[in-house]
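Obj: model holo form, ligand = pyridoxal-5'-phosphate.
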Amino acid sequence: MSSRNDQLFEQSQKVIPGGVNSPVRAFRSVGGTPRFFTKGLGARVWDADGKAYLDYVGSWGPLILGHADPDVVKAVQDTAALGLSFGAPTEMELVMAEKLAAMLPSMEKLRLVSSGTEATMSAIRLARGHTGRDLLIKFEGCYHGHADSLLVKAGSGLLTFGAPSSAGVPADTSRHTLVLDYNDIDQVNRVFAEKGNEIACVIVEAVAGNMNLIKPKAGFLEALRENCTKHGAVLIFDEVMTGFRVGAGCVQGLYGIQPDLTTLGKVIGGGLPVGAFGGRADIMDKLAPLGPVYQAGTLSGNPVAVAAGLKTLEKISVPGFFEALTAKTRRLVDGLSAAARDAGVLFSADSVGGMFGVYFRATPPTSYAEVMQSDKDAFNRFFHLMLLEGVYLAPSAFEAGFVSAAHSDADIDATIAAAARCFEKLAG
Ligand SMILES: *Cc1c(COP(=O)(O)O)cnc(C)c1O
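Output (holo structure tokens):
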């Protein structure tokens, strides 16, 4: 018997490429039919067949307060009633900018945009405009949105330029991007020694979350900071995922490293489209209308989206918020690890603040190469077993997971118990 999810997916594929508006949603990596959601409340979502799931995706990170938080919904409703968009400045944008600058001391000035992609694309243009250099350094496995210069994978050798990782990206564009190995400090030092005066910027997920969760090794972020300072390159922390997800001061606060520019998204929109980029005032003042670097947006700083973001930031600023979220997320990964061990399944898990990674390998990975060695088939079986249990994990072995403030201790316990049953099946 065909489910409503199946029907909707079949129909969607006729008018939407792959049936989805963003590729990972299509379940290609895990197989099967994507769930079409009709409703979300707190830690739970409901699919088109009415089945409920405990949600550990949270719209890929933004929903740190859970679904349909009543205060956020009310802020959106109240603001929407006053007009949806003006294309002119509003006081709320100022309040939002002041709030972000107060929470992140490295952000002396900032601009609001409408997505993470826009934030990183703009930060890179600004870094290039500021330095008068073209060369960009990124790390294999880090994702920074889908701008041309960022859809690049490693070339054949260390100092050879990257190759496009998507059709439609001109080779000329990727020639300005060098792709290095995350957590390889020697490589960073060598590349800077050789090409330091050509490098406009380094962009990095300071805690990586788009190749599953990978933490920076001791000294890695420091090496980026030192090399950029020494060679006049702009250090960009892409905190679109980690911003106000790992802690109130983001990764830069946790690790005590100040980037020159930071990009934000996800949590700062509270589920609506908001991004931001900002940092050193002398760099930010190179933006139009003050400076020569062009950047704009019809809906930038949209009042309804900003209302959702501001209310979210307000609620996560309550003392103890991140301590509780961090402890809850840690309890989840410790419980999953113990359950896997009991069942004899090769598994490890890790977390930073409210984000976590599960790995079908003995220890948490420290590099892209290591994460790629995890047992993808085991993950895919686990994913589908958990789905049957009513637990919705990211539909790919290479994505991070997210816990929200709406997840109760009972929800975490239920998830661990469900996972224990799934690990038993995997082992058996
Ligand atoms: C999600 C993400 C982006 C892209 O943001 P969009 O809003 O999807 O354009 C960029 N960088 C990182 C680290 C992300 O996690």
